[in-house]
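Please produce the structure of this protein holding pyridoxal-5'-phosphate.
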Amino acid sequence: MEKQQIHIALPSTGEQEWLATRECFDTGWLTQGPKVAEFERAFAKRHGVRHAIAVTSCTTGLHLVLAAYGIGPGDEVIVPAFTWVATANVVRFCGATPIFVDVDIDTYNIDPTLVAEKVTEKTKAIIPVHLFGHPANIDAIAAVIPEDVIIIEDAACAAGASYKGKYAGTLGLAGVFSFHPRKTITCGEGGMITTNDDALADKLKMMRSHGATVSEEQRHLGAKPHILPDFNVLGYNYRMTDMQGAVGLVQLSKLDAFLEERRYFSQYYREALAQCLWIKTPVEPVAGDHSWQAFVCLVDPQIAPMGRNEIMEELNTRGISTRPGTHAVTELGLYAEHRGCFPNAAFCEANTIALPLHNKMSEKDYSYVVDTILSMVPSKVLN
Ligand SMILES: *Cc1c(COP(=O)(O)O)cnc(C)c1O
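Below is the modeled complex.
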């Protein structure tokens, strides 16, 4: 018999998504078309933003925004040191230089007090990350950067998160979301750029589809589909398929229910694990709503019953999947020249543990995770 395992994350998809996908095969419209357009409209409405532009991933979306804004060689873009590697990589896609800033251990987000010292003449943009769904302190960041430095939010984890009454993705020039299965809503792979800037939106739409002045949907459904458009800018193929759009649309309709359930069980975890001294549960944002894409705790290396990796291994043998929060990008081989320079990021990489949190877990699963952790006795007590 297969061992029961509580997964770190599982997509919550079902019959509705399956049927929505079928519709595309019935009509024969497979690449970006009416379903993507509908998904974009619904996403923009849900997040209170003028434009939502679907792309193939958060990574390509971030790249597209940087490229559309004209970031290139010689430019610098500030990014947090503790994040998914893509946040830094997209800067390099443009030939620009990622400038790392350490994070705040309580929120795991970029530390605004360390940003000013990294700003130079070459700084063109900053990419704050709402890591695990905790909204970054955008006002504190905006206060320490020159006015012409743009803010691009890495909102990969932040569908539904908010900051001072505004949704993530609407706090800077643009925001970019991810629909990877590890995120709260998914369409397999996919991303969404949000912006209130009309000119930028037009440029993004063009650049995601080879730089064509007329979109394929417009052309094929228009009066003269045989007239090919002009191409005036260097574009990419970052188009989302209509099957993904159809799935995304269904997933978006479930977002509020997903968020509510995640909030409920995050609170449950925080209360139930409060008595566990060696594990520090994530804090609630001071000004906004967490979207709880992941529930990432800190293991106190001084009193933990064993090392963080051994804890993950022990939990795994007891049927509970966990993961480190994410990378200290600056400790990876690709960015090895920065190793040792960002102590908080390195500490978070070494000591964070994400507990299972997703919309296919039962109340019993959550209490099993809590009971198992509480049964692991701190080393100080053993001695
Ligand atoms: C998941 C994630 C990404 C990458 O998203 P993709 O859609 O897989 O490209 C980027 N940044 C952060 C913070 C993420 O969590």
